[in-house]
Task: inverse folding
């Protein structure tokens, strides 16, 4: 069964460094998402992406964050200058084109630790 | 602003018991509601999706119901097994916006004792 994959599974970085989290959505999906989950807290929406542009972003998704679909398969989340509070599990999700009723399929996540 | 609540935060039951997990949401203007399973340190696995026009969905031993007017959903697990031990999250997709944007509850951590 097709699945969303994410790399790396765990990323450790120093405060102020740039990180890029990578996702390969399911191949025929056209809608892409990033969510994050701080330890012990709710999963929070960050950004949605369709047709090579951001559809919607949350207030968390400030100028330090950016997303890109550099080729036909990858979907990346970049954090320009990481802060301690960016430490979280980051989930990528994708959805098939079609109605809003389609399921979002989530990847296994990347655990980001900022020291 | 949509708020999703799941109470209790944790539940422990003996194997074989039928159980109900509750989810409530404050804004009934939703497109659909999804139930997910999350194993410790892992990603989210979609279990069931209920469209706003539907009342329930079933998959194997799982049955999810939706009462949009009262802002409630339940996930019924029949004949629970130790392998059902995980955190169960519900998430709602709002009616507004150009794209889906799930709002999650904090989840219910279920432990099924052998």
Result:
């Amino acid at each position: 069964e097709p699945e969303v994959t994410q790399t790396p599974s765990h990323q450790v970085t120093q405060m102020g460094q740039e990180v890029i989290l990578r996702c390969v959505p399911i191949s025929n999906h056209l809608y892409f998402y990033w969510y994050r989950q701080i330890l012990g807290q709710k999963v929070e929406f960050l950004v949605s992406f369709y047709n090579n542009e951001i559809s919607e972003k949350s207030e968390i998704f400030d100028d330090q964050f950016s997303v890109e679909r550099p080729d036909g398969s990858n979907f990346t989340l970049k954090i320009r200058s990481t802060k301690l509070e960016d430490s979280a599990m980051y989930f990528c999700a994708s959805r098939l084109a079609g109605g809003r009723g389609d399921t979002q399929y989530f990847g296994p996540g990347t655990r980001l630790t900022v020291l | 602003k949509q708020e999703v609540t799941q109470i209790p935060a944790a539940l422990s039951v003996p194997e074989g018991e039928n159980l109900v997990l509750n989810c409530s949401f404050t804004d009934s203007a939703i497109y659909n509601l999804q139930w997910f399973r999350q194993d410790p340190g892992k990603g989210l696995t979609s279990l069931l999706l209920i469209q706003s026009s539907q009342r329930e969905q079933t998959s194997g031993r799982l049955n999810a119901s939706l009462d949009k007017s009262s802002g409630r959903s339940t996930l019924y697990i029949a004949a629970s097994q130790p392998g059902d031990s995980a955190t169960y999250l519900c998430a709602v997709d709002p009616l507004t916006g150009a794209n889906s944007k799930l709002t999650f509850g904090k989840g219910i951590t279920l432990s099924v004792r052998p």
Summary: Chain B has a mean pLDDT of 93. Chain B has no helices and eleven strands. Chain B touches chain A at residues 4, 31-32, 34, 36, 41-46, 49, 51, 89, 91, 93, 97-107 (CB under 8 Å). The first strand of chain B starts at residue 4 and ends at 5.
